[in-house]
Amino acid sequence: MTTRRRLSILLYQGTPGIWVGRGIEHDLSAEGRTIGETVRAILRFVDAHSQFDVRRDQPPLAAFSAAPQAYWNAFQAATHVPLAQLGAESPQHWEVSVAIARQRPSVGTARSLGISA
Fold it and tell me: Phi-psi category of 54—alpha, beta or left, where left has phi over 0 and alpha has psi -120 to 50?
């Protein structure tokens, strides 16, 4: 893998004391007790899964489609934080951006998405 790939991570507090990190370009997530712990968990996953994919001649994280639009919108509106400030480094061949949202993005209800119960 020689091409740099991009991953944007949206962070928000799921419940008191639990932070959720959600990938935007690749819909993956991790939880942690701190923002830094959550980001590092996602980055370890990205690194390990990318290496796995490359060994099998697959594009890194190809199995993960993009997150729903609500997460993209929340990422744009969130406070962007340098990765180094969180005590983390991008995995090799990845450009990672992090943003912290004030609240969990609302992705709608089943009814608003056209799903019947």
Answer: alpha
pLDDT, tens only, 10-60: 999 999 999 999 999 999 999 999 999 999 999 999 999 999 999 999 999
The upper half-sphere exposure of residue 117, i.e. CA atoms within 13 Å in the direction of its Cβ, equals 4
State how far the Cα of 117 lies from the Cα of 111, in Å rounded to an integer: 8
- Which structural domains are found in the chain, ordered by start? 5-100 (3.30.160)
CA proximity to 14, closest of 39, 33, 41, 27? 33
Contact 33, 18 (CB under 8 A): yes
Parallel/antiparallel/unpaired status of strands 29-32 and 18-23: antiparallel
- Could you report the per-residue pLDDT of 15-25, keeping only the tens digit for each? 999 999 999 99
Q: State the Rg of the chain over Cα.
A: 15
